[in-house]
Amino acid sequence: MAPRRPPENSDYTVPDILAWLEANGSATNLAGMSRFGINTEKAFGVGNTALRPFARTLGRDHERALNLWQTGFREARLLALFTEEPGRVSPTRARAMADDFNSWEIVDHASDLFVDAGHLDELVPEFAADEREFVRRTAFAMIAWGAVHLKQRDDNDFIALLPLIEQQATDPRNFVKKAVNWALRQIGKRTIACHGPALELAQKLAASDDKTARWIGKDAVRELTDDKIRQRLASRTD
């Protein structure tokens, strides 16, 4: 069933939004989300293909985003992230949100917001040092997003993060190791200047005695040595 369409120029309150989410929830979606490792303990079962358009209808509102986040519902928190005003998200607020992280999906969208809010430099080292799995994942998801979207940043800013990637490459927890690998690959694909140092680290990790580091390295080497990736980087003039 197609999601119910919200009214044009809606001025939805948080209770209105929760009612919309409940009306558009799906047990089938919940089952599918669970299979992908998404935490559905408190969720309605509304997919992102419905949430994204709804978020655009709602527009950005910091206070509403705070209240949506406090409900604890998966979809309400995603809407909070999609409709937050990045300029009003302080590092302190980001830390408070990180205390609530319980799903890789929420982490990855929040990481985008934290980078857009301008907190890459302050929060990445702090979150990488945090022992909590989802908070540590946040650091490397932020690096991955920043490497792609912060096009005006100096490449050396991302090359300087490679030692942090190496440092955490032995964390065997699933959601950490995948994010560390993701960050390494995205730095390597950023520009030709980043490619060499990232590939060098990937090759070093691939030869490691540590099982997790070896997996991260081999997977990154496979992507960063792909001919299409190399050709794309070599052809870029920006």
What's the overall geometry? globular
Low-confidence stretches: none
Major sheet details: none
Tell me the Rg in angstroms.
19 Å
> What proportion strand?
under 5%
Structural class from helices and strands?
mainly alpha
What is the element string, with H for helices and E for strands? HHHHHHHHHHHHHHH
Q: What is the percent of helical residues? A: 55-70%
Tell me the span between the first and last alpha carbons. Answer: 45 Å
* Total beta-strand segments: 0
The overall average pLDDT, rounded, is: 94
**Helix count?**
15
Characterize the structure shown.
The structure is a single chain. The protein has 15 helices and no strands. The chain is mainly alpha-helical and 238 residues long.
Please describe the structure with a list of short key phrases separated by commas or semicolons.
238 residues, mainly alpha, globular
In brief:
By secondary structure, this protein is mostly helical. It contains 15 helices and no strands.
Task: Describe the protein's topology.
Elements: H1 14-23, H2 27-35, H3 48-58, H4 62-71, H5 74-83, H6 91-98, H7 104-116, H8 120-129, H9 133-149, H10 155-159, H11 162-167, H12 174-188, H13 192-206, H14 211-224, H15 227-235
